[in-house]
Amino acid sequence: MRQRDLRDLRSRLASLGLSSLRRVESSTLDGLEAVIAILESLSGELPRDPSALVPYVDFESGPAILAVQAEHLLEPVPKGRGVRIMVTMASEAADYYGLVKGLINAGMDVMRVNCTHDAELEWERMIAFMRRANQESGKHCKTLLDLGGPKLRTCSIHNGNHVVRWKVGRDRRGAVVARPRIALASKSARKPVTPEPSTQADVVLPLAETLLHTTQVGDIVEVKDSCGKKRRLAVIHKDDHACVCTCERSDYILSRGKLSVLRNGKEIAAGQIGELPLVEEPIRLHRGDSLSNRTIDDAASLQDRCRGMDQDHEV
């Protein structure tokens, strides 16, 4: 019965002033038969012959059976209260005997060990502390090992990509109003040296020192983005450790992307971008998507994100 969604049925039964079947665990079939009998009476149907029904646990025998089994499993309810007390152990219970002993002295009847946390060594220590406290206090606390059920797990998922991104600011008509500043910095420098606030960069691309020294203001630095397309960066500032460029398009750049320096339309130097920071990528799911255990390649995952970047729209 619990495998079905009964919310609509419960509402309809409650509207008739009948049992909503919320508390029938001790005598489930008897509870169902009682509701059916009342509905048959309300509808004018003839009641069924009780002798034709299969024998089942009724309202009297059900709770009695549960009480006997609970007493057999957990021992009688302590004097002075109507319930037994179960306490879930924290991880500290494996290292602190006083915690377990104090709980048993305070009335703990069942020590619950959540096996989805800690490990066998910690569980054994908790149980050993409980047995020691039982022996010293003369009490009979028991242990419940709550085993971890099946869990949905994914396969190894790529953590992310070593990538940087810059974005072009545009107005409502699509005209460029703010160009990104991309710093080409020496790999040995933690950040580009920019003497004036106006030359501070939005992103940093690390380069080899020799390649950086070849650049001059007015050069064009051509890089390949994550989708394999060439992007042209115009050098607008240069100092000993870095040069600052601008670009007319938004883009994503991966580590070790190819790079060349152009002067007057001719290539004068070539190399590759150094290691970029790791950016963790969330898994975005939409209605109708399918999940599989196949890993996603860096380039393939970024191609979907970058598709349409020529129009400066994100997917």
List keywords for this structure.
315 residues, alpha+beta, M1 Pyruvate Kinase, Domain 3, 3-stranded parallel beta sheet, 7 helices, 25% helix, disordered C terminus
Topology:
Elements: H1 7-15, H2 28-43, H3 61-74, E1 86-88, H4 97-105, E2 110-114, H5 120-137, E3 142-146, E4 160-166, E5 169-170, E6 176-178, E7 181-186, E8 203-207, H6 209-213, E9 220-224, E10 230-238, E11 242-246, E12 251-254, E13 258-263, E14 266-272, E15 278-280, H7 298-306
Helix pairs in contact: 4-5
Could you explain the architecture of this structure?
- The chain is an alpha+beta fold.
- It folds into 3 domains: 61 residues, no CATH class; 68 residues; 152 residues, M1 Pyruvate Kinase, Domain 3, CATH 2.40.33.10.
- 25% of the residues lie in helices and 24% in strands.
- The chain has 7 helices and 15 strands.
- The strands form 4 sheets. A 7-stranded mixed beta sheet has the order 8-7-11-10-9-13-14. The chain has a 3-stranded parallel beta sheet with strand order 1-2-3, with helices on one face.
- β13 and β14 form a beta hairpin.
- α4 packs across α5.
- The radius of gyration is 36 Å and the shape is elongated.
Number of strands: 15
Fraction in helix: 25-40%
CATH class descriptor name of the largest domain: Mainly Beta
Structural class designation? alpha+beta
| Large-scale geometry | elongated
Radius of gyration: 36 Å
- SSE arrangement, N to C: HHHEHEHEEEEEEHEEEEEEEH
Strand order of the largest sheet: 8-7-11-10-9-13-14
CATH topology of the largest domain: M1 Pyruvate Kinase, Domain 3
- Strand portion, in percent? 15-25%
Distance from first to last alpha carbon: 45 Å
CATH superfamily of the largest domain: PK beta-barrel domain-like
CATH architect. name of the largest domain: Beta Barrel
Number of domain units = 3
Number of helices: 7
The low-confidence runs, each spanning 5 or more residues with pLDDT under 50, are 190-198, 294-300, 305-315
The largest sheet is: 7 strands, mixed
What integer is the average pLDDT? Answer: 81
